[in-house]
Design goal:
The protein has about 425 residues and is α+β, with helices and mostly antiparallel strands. The protein is built from 14 helices and 14 strands. The two termini are about 30 Å apart.
């Protein structure tokens, strides 16, 4: 009997039920899309921000201490170096798959043929590595400094094997020395004097424009620094800092065992720095705070925006349901009054109305959920040029939101239902 009454209510009031289902579907679709994007947006935002440079710098321990004391930034004033052979170890840490790019640097002073002094920096451009883990990695400043504008020529291609004695020249150096692509530079340092060919001229918009960049082994030969590296820049996908990560940054030894495990197994920038220090001998890995903090702030604000949109969509859905259900109860007031007159109690009538609305909400919620997944993919491809992964957590969250919003929207109608008096309603008052 109960089911038959629900079925007849759907038949008699199919238009209102359709509107209720449509209202819930709109709210559920927006909630599904926002929650899906919010739960998957972290890595995508981090990937986008990787285009703006490294977020971790690794220096020799002595250099780091002197830099902090005398504010000389990354200058290697202590003549201490890192071992080039240990570079591959960075991809052996716990968070190896979060290390998306890194490149070493070795800088040395040199003199050109005309006597002008220049800074020569050796680095990777598109260096290929076959790691012991079986993973392959292509890393270097071609991807790490993708904002550099190549005004003439092109990036050095290490993998071709033809660009061994090539150089990338900063805009300031090129203008000062009147250099063009294809010109040969005779560079003399503390080691060998080498001739290098200008492969490209770049405009970085900063102090890099006063530097000549060459492959690592070329700079090592010029500066008589075989096997030595003076810094490493690392780009890693990280989780925004919280109180635990800030406490660990001061002293990991102050953490309890459970806190240490949580911190170590979470992709905090401080945890990744700590693990890099464990595999690179006598090194200090420090987050580039301007980049790391910006990533966290952008991520938090984006997620907050998603939550606010979800809440507003649910509030709108609740208001729409409230109006529609109230109108439905008013139209059925005589029917409800008759049920009360023949002995139906308020709990039974309330259960009947709520069952009708929850069945409608189920239909609208299912439609809205699949529509929301589609909206999430549209957002993913239009904003991040990649698909959004729908977390299993979204399903129960949407179910809870739909049920809660539906029940809240029904409250005014239920209160009206409870106040209906059969004698007044049946007499048309």
């Amino acid at each position: 009997m109960f089911i038959r009454m629900i079925a007849k209510a759907f038949i008699r009031q199919w238009k209102k039920m359709a509107l209720i289902a449509f209202t819930i579907a709109l709210g559920a679709s927006l909630a599904t899309a926002m929650l899906s994007v919010m739960l998957d947006v972290g890595d995508k935002i981090n990937q986008e921000l990787k285009a703006y440079g490294a977020n971790i710098t690794v220096l020799p321990k002595n250099t780091s201490v002197i830099s902090e004391l005398y504010d000389v930034k990354n200058e290697n004033v202590s003549n201490s170096y890192l071992d080039e052979e240990e570079l591959g170890k960075i991809k052996t840490i716990f968070w190896t798959f979060n290390i998306v790019d890194y490149t070493p640097f070795i800088s040395t002073g040199a003199t050109l043929e005309n006597g002008d002094e220049v800074t020569v920096s050796g680095t990777w451009f598109n260096h290929h590595m076959d790691l012991a883990t079986g993973e392959k990695l292509d890393a270097g400043i071609a991807s790490l400094r993708s904002w550099w504008e190549i005004s003439e020529g092109d990036w050095i291609d290490e993998q071709s094997g033809d660009d061994i004695n090539m150089a990338m020249v900063g805009k300031e150096v090129a203008e000062k020395e009147n250099l063009n692509v294809g010109d040969t530079l005779h560079i003399k340092g503390e080691g060998k004097a080498l001739d290098v060919t200008v492969k490209g001229i770049f405009d970085a918009g900063g102090e890099e424009d006063e530097v000549i960049y060459v492959p690592v082994d070329v700079a090592q030969e010029i500066g008589n620094l075989e096997g030595k590296i003076d810094s490493i820049e690392v780009s890693a996908l990280t989780t925004p800092d919280n109180e635990l990560s800030r406490k660990a940054a001061k002293d990991p030894g102050s953490l309890s065992v459970s806190q240490y495990e949580t911190w170590y197994c979470t992709a905090y920038v401080t945890a990744i720095c700590y693990q890099i220090e464990q595999v690179i001998t006598d090194s200090v890995a420090s987050p580039v705070r301007q980049v790391a903090d910006s990533e966290g702030q952008i991520l938090e604000k984006t997620q907050l925006l998603m939550i606010l949109i979800t809440i507003l969509s649910m509030v709108g859905a609740a208001l729409g349901i409230c109006n529609l259900v109230t109108a439905s109860v008013m139209e059925r007031s005589q029917e409800i009054g008759l049920m009360k007159a023949v002995g139906a109690h308020n709990p039974a009538i309330t259960a009947l109305v709520l069952s009708e609305i929850l069945c409608t909400a189920l239909i609208g919620g299912i439609i809205g959920f699949f529509a929301g997944i589609g909206f999430a993919q549209i957002i993913g491809h239009s904003v991040f040029n990649s698909a959004i992964s729908v977390s299993p957590m979204v399903v129960p969250l949407v179910v809870v939101l739909v049920v809660v919003v539906t029940l809240i929207g029904c409250i005014p109608a239920i209160r009206m239902l409870l106040k209906l008096r059969p004698t007044e309603v049946l007499h048309g008052r």
